[in-house]
Structures are given as C-alpha cells and as structure tokens.
Amino acid sequence: MPNRSDLFQCQKCGECCKGYGGAFVNEREIERISRYLDIASESFLRDYCQWSGRRPLIKTLASGYCVFWDKVCTIHKVKPRMCKLWPFIESMLIDTTNWAILQSMCPGIRGDVDPDDVVECVREAVAEYEKE
C-alpha cells in the first residue's frame, strides 16, 4: 500500500479552504480553537461560526475562503477534523469517485491511483486522528 504522501502532497494553494459548506466543528475542536485564539467558546461560535441545523461550522467569507485562511491557515495547529484529514475524508469510504472530484480542485492530489489505495489511506488517516 502506498503512503498517503504518495497520493497527496499539499501545495499550500488554499483551494481546500475555499467553497461552500465550511468545516463542521465539534465540542473538542471548539474548545481547542477557542483556547488557541484566546477567546471564550461562545465568542468563537458567535464570531467565527455559522449554523447548519444544530451543528456549527466555520464561516466562509464572501471571497469563498474559510474565515481562517490568510495565504496560510491561521489555526493550522488546531484545525478541525475535516481539515486535518483532507483529502482523506470519510466520503471516500462511501464512494471513491469522490477522489476524482477532489483531484479536479486540488493540484496536490494524484489522480492515477487505485481506489483501494485511497480507501486504505482514508482508514489509516481516520485511525490516526482518533488516537489524538
């Protein structure tokens, strides 16, 4: 099985920080990001999040970028799960054709990979995240 770095090399282009939807944040992430920003969780939720149903997600600015994108991720050390796992996100376990969709947006994703390798790398990335 190839390493994740064989399938993806971040180009620091910010394309993954752009687009509709934002990144959902859970309680643990809210606490970590709030501490990192040295603000109360309530302030973080009010100033940096919007709501999708009952779930908070990090705001997207009019430019289309995440509120924390400024040529680099300004909360990189404490970024949410979806951002840490990118592009090895769980939707690949449901449909590996999502890899081609992500690859069309992200110059760091290799397109000529075996779908089984993508699935294994996603499982590995998720398992590592769960250990944190």
Unreliably modeled segments: none
Structural class: mainly alpha
Order of helices and strands: HHHEEHHHH
**How would you sum up the global shape?**
globular
Quick one: biggest sheet?
A: 2 strands, antiparallel
Q: Average pLDDT across residues?
A: 93
* Rg, Å, rounded: 15 Å
Number of helices: 7
Q: What is the topology, as strand order, of the major beta sheet?
A: 1-2
Strand content: 5-15%
SS elements, strand count = 2
How much helical structure, as a percent, in the residues? Answer: 40-55%
Gap between N and C termini: 23 Å
Number of domains: 1
Keywords:
single chain, mainly alpha, 6% strand, 132 residues, 43% helix, two-stranded antiparallel ribbon, globular
Describe, in plain words, how this protein is organized in 3D.
By secondary structure, the chain is mainly alpha-helical. The chain has one domain (4-131). The chain has 7 helices and 2 strands, in the order H-H-H-E-E-H-H-H-H. A two-stranded antiparallel ribbon has the order 1-2. A hairpin with a 2-residue loop joins strand 1 and strand 2 (55-58). Helix 2 crosses helix 3 (41-48). The two termini are 23 Å apart.
